């Protein structure tokens, strides 16, 4: 019998080549074809044709390589066995000849399938499946030829496959009533192969007296219980790169003859099993002109009974997507990413599919958000078109072409009916027919040019308008179908090089706009989808307003979807300013539809041109019903825009300053707005900076603590507000850092703030730079309100009391810096590089040095510095710092150093003598008499030390 052929191999440049022309060149004349399969590669020279041929009761499996040479007129043929090494003599002529590869099998082949992803071949035999890997053999730099290697056998007991499908190591097998889907998974080391269900499971079913097979559906892990054990046998030559596989069961489904909704049918058999890959190549945002390497995104499996078809997703999740009910018994079906084409005894039907919707969710699990959306997978299936044919027998699909094989009996021809409706063809001459005079009369081959995606999309959109005011859900359904149609075309790997690329992108954006219109205009439960669809459409807010708002219609009502879209759009930082007319219209819309949102809407940068007088009028009406701090602040904002300072002061006096500061948390855009990613101060912030800087700083601190503004954003905010360029730090920003230190609890941010204020204090002191505005807090204020500023130590005060007059000009910064170092908060090791500029800054530098050494535990170095530069403070330092475990420094370091320096200077330094006496008093109280005596210098004057020795001995007697 004449067998139908994949168009990818017989359709080239709009010409049809006879399959027999190809097979005849290899001596295949007289052979009976029982099955045929093909692989279409990216390169024309890397595809092949595989056939199951019967002759003289013998069955052959053959692969035809480089078969286009036969259709081009060449008669050269090379016949060889699979895996046979190429002879050098063929190397120069292989380009111009067809190769026939014989593929011997131990059992007759029953069915075959080619993997569309990598070209591997799967052959179904009784109780086994044989996998052949496609190999690319490099003959020379200009010639690469194809070959196969038998790599794996799947032994399946008690199973005779009727059809197989093979794609990306996924295998779908059907018998008359069973479907089994498997996946071959690569394992790194030898694992125990799955041998199917345990004997316990089988025995259990026998104990339950199960005689008749029941219809069953097992998904995922449960499909292991299908009673079909599988054993793997590797036939490859073992190398280090040899891959080992294990079987994972994905789906098992068993039907019974009475499963047809049309009643008992003896001819109930499964047919048309197919695995459909969807690739990740196409993208609605792609602009590259070069085709990327195809990456598998999703995989779908279709199979059919005579009256119903089933479409499953078998990629990341195994689930039933759609069920297709046919109007009459089907003969064959073919699935594409856009449609399901089904032939019955007298017509060709076309149904919608949900593959693109499922694939979109595989690509982005969070697609249904405020940014992106996609129609649901569970939409009802639609029959798009139907066309009458006489005796359809087989069907296949290639791009935008349907190929149909028909066989018309004489009685059918005489009773032929005219088609009542055009289906897929737009032109009468788009259907070509060829009759083989040598074959049985009535056989016909049709090539049907299907309507282009864009044209069919237009028709569906036009048709949806008939339901706009009648059936809301029908309108949305039709537009969703049109959207999925375009989305499927965009996900096709050929999209990037398609002539329709720009048209498809325009149609995609337009379909999103139409869906946005539907969810905005209609009262639906999914009204929130208006936002993501409008965003994907690329429409501006002004354009959306023009689509939905009628001019001069004061009585127009606005649905939730439209208000939802406007609310989110206005609350985000868009770089779009509405005109005065549009802004006032939006104001009116929210006053009518959602008045509580008015304060937030008016703070949007998009509403910058709104009429403040009208805004205040609406706000006053809302305030009578729902007063709030945010509303009051918004009224004050509008008063500033109007230039009405009296009204502004009246509104600001309504609440205490602390409540007003917290009110900005409810609407930060009153103070700061974002444009192109940058934080900008508002007119309100500028006014507060001049009139109420304390409120501005307190409000900004509240925003930071409530995650409404980041630390770096606040830096930019204050620099722009104070017109400071470069790295200059305005005092208002330092005020913000100091205020933030009071409330900040995050250690990482805390250390950053401490370093920032320290750096600023150091910079001002070293550069003798006064702040441009009066600081909001003094050192005393910070010590009293913030535990990160400590009380200044007495010895620090002692050193500073003899400082230079210039230090008093920068006394606030100096005291704040010393107060910071007197606390335990700042990380001294990190602060040392920042403090470096003050190393030579007189008494200020001395206090910084000694404070740092003390925090680092370097007490002896601190004493050396004090004795060298300010000996009067040495004992005062020791009394404050040398306690507990550090008291030993008194007699090990301080006392010997004082004695040494006193001896060298004599009576010229009364401060040293005074310090020495203080040190002797402390040491005499702490040490035993013997230990004290051992510390005294040998050349000392006994009269000088006698009072301390007496004091030491008296303490001993008392104890």
TrEMBL record:
<feature type="domain" description="BLOC-2 complex member HPS3 C-terminal">
    <location>
        <begin position="455"/>
        <end position="956"/>
    </location>
</feature>
<dbReference type="Pfam" id="PF14763">
    <property type="entry name" value="HPS3_C"/>
</dbReference>
<dbReference type="InterPro" id="IPR029437">
    <property type="entry name" value="HPS3_N"/>
</dbReference>
<dbReference type="GO" id="GO:0031084">
    <property type="term" value="C:BLOC-2 complex"/>
</dbReference>
<protein>
    <submittedName>
        <fullName>HPS3 biogenesis of lysosomal organelles complex 2 subunit 1</fullName>
    </submittedName>
</protein>
<dbReference type="GO" id="GO:0005737">
    <property type="term" value="C:cytoplasm"/>
</dbReference>
<dbReference type="InterPro" id="IPR029438">
    <property type="entry name" value="HPS3_C"/>
</dbReference>
<dbReference type="InterPro" id="IPR017216">
    <property type="entry name" value="HPS3"/>
</dbReference>
<dbReference type="Pfam" id="PF14761">
    <property type="entry name" value="HPS3_N"/>
</dbReference>
<feature type="domain" description="BLOC-2 complex member HPS3 N-terminal">
    <location>
        <begin position="45"/>
        <end position="435"/>
    </location>
</feature>
């Amino acid at each position: 019998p004449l067998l139908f052929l994949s168009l990818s191999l017989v359709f080239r440049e709009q010409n049809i080549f006879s399959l027999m022309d190809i097979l005849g060149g290899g001596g295949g004349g007289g052979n009976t074809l029982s099955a045929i399969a093909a692989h279409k590669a990216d390169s024309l020279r890397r595809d092949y044709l595989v056939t199951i041929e019967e002759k003289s009761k013998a069955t052959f499996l053959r692969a035809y390589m480089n078969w286009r040479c036969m259709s081009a007129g060449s008669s050269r043929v090379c016949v060889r066995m699979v895996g046979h090494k190429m002879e050098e003599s063929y190397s120069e002529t292989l380009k111009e000849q067809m190769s026939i590869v014989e593929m011997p099998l131990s059992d007759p082949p029953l069915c075959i399938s080619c993997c569309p992803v990598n070209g591997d071949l799967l052959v179904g035999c009784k109780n086994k499946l044989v996998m052949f890997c496609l190999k690319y053999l490099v003959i020379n730099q200009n010639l690469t030829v194809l070959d196969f290697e038998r790599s794996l056998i799947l032994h399946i007991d008690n199973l005779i496959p009727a059809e197989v499908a093979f794609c990306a190591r996924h295998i779908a097998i059907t018998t008359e009533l069973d479907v089994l889907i498997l996946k071959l998974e690569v394992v790194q080391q030898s694992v125990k192969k799955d041998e199917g269900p345990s004997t316990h499971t089988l025995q259990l079913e026998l104990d339950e007296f199960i005689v008749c097979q029941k219809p069953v559906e097992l998904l995922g892990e449960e499909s292991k219980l299908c009673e079909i054990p599988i054993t793997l046998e590797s036939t490859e030559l073992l190398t280090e790169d040899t891959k080992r596989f294990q079987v994972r069961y994905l789906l098992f489904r068993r039907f019974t003859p009475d499963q047809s909704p049309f009643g008992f049918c003896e001819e109930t058999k499964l047919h048309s099993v197919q695995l459909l890959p969807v690739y990740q190549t196409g993208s609605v945002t792609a602009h590259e002109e070069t085709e990327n390497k195809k990456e598998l995104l999703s995989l779908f499996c279709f199979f059919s009974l005579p009256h119903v078809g089933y479409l499953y997703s078998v990629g990341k999740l195994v689930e039933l997507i759609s069920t297709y009910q046919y109007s009459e018994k089907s003969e064959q079906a073919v699935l594409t990413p856009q449609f399901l084409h089904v032939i019955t005894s007298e017509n060709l039907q076309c149904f919608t599919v949900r593959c693109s919707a499922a694939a979109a969710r595989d690509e982005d699990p969070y697609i249904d958000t405020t940014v992106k959306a996609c129609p649901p997978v569970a939409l009802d299936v639609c029959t798009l078109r139907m066309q009458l044919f006489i005796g359809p027998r087989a069907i296949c699909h290639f791009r935008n072409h349907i190929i149909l094989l028909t066989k018309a009996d004489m009685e059918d021809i005489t009773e032929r009916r005219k088609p009542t409706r055009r289906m897929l063809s737009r032109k009468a001459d788009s259907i070509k027919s060829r009759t083989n005079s040598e074959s049985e009369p009535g056989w016909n081959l049709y090539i049907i040019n299907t309507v282009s995606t864009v044209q069919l999309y237009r028709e569906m959109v036009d048709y949806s308008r008939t339901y706009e005011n009648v059936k809301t859900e029908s309108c949305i359904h039709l537009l969703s179908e049109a959207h999925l149609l375009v989305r499927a075309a965009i996900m096709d790997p050929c999209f990037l090089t398609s002539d329709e690329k720009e048209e498809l992108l325009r149609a995609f954006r337009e379909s999103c706009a139409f869906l946005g219109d539907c969810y905005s205009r209609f009262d639906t439960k999914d009204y929130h989808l208006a936002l993501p669809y409008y965003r994907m459409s690329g429409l501006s807010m002004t354009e959306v307003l023009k689509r939905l708002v009628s001019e001069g219609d004061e009585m127009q009502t606005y649905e939730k979807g439209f208000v939802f879209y406007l609310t989110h759009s206005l609350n985000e930082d868009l770089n779009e300013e509405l005109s005065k007319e549009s802004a006032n219209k939006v104001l009116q819309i929210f006053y009518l539809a959602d008045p509580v949102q008015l304060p937030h809407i008016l703070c949007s940068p998009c509403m910058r041109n709104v009429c403040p007088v009208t805004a205040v009028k609406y706000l006053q009406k809302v305030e009578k019903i729902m007063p709030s701090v945010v509303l009051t602040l918004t009224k004050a904002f509008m008063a500033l825009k109007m230039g009405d300072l009296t009204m502004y002061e009246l509104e600001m006096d309504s609440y205490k300053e602390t409540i007003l500061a917290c009110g900005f948390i409810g609407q930060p855009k009153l103070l700061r707005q974002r444009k192109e990613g940058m934080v900008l101060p508002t007119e309100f912030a500028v006014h507060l900076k001049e009139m109420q800087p304390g409120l501005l700083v307190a409000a900004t601190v509240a925003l930071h603590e409530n995650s409404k503004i980041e630390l770096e954003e606040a830096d930019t905010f204050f620099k722009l507000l104070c017109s400071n360029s470069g790295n200059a730090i305005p005092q208002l920003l330092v005020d913000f850092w100091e205020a933030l230190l009071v409330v900040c609890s995050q250690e990482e941010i805390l250390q950053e703030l401490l370093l920032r204020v320290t750096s600023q204090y150091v910079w001002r002191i070293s550069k003798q730079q006064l702040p441009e505005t009066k600081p909001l807090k003094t050192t005393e204020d910070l010590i009293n309100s913030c535990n990160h500023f400590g009380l200044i130590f007495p010895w620090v005060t002692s050193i500073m009391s003899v400082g230079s007059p210039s230090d008093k000009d920068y006394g606030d910064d100096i005291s704040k810096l010393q107060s910071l170092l007197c606390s335990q908060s700042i990380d001294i090791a990190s602060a040392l590089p920042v403090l470096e500029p003050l190393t030579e800054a007189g008494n200020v530098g001395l206090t910084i040095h000694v404070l740092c050494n003390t925090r680092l535990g370097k007490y002896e170095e601190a004493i050396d510095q004090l004795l060298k530069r300010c000996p009067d403070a040495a004992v005062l330092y020791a009394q404050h710092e040398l306690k507990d475990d550090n008291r030993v420094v008194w007699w090990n370091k301080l006392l010997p150093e004082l004695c040494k320096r006193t001896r060298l200077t004599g009576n010229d330094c009364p401060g040293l003598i005074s310090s020495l006496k203080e040190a002797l008093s402390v040491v005499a109280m702490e040490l035993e008499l013997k230990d004290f005596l051992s510390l005294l210098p040998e050349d000392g004057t006994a009269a000088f030390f006698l009072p301390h020795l007496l004091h030491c001995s008296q303490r001993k007697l008392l104890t």
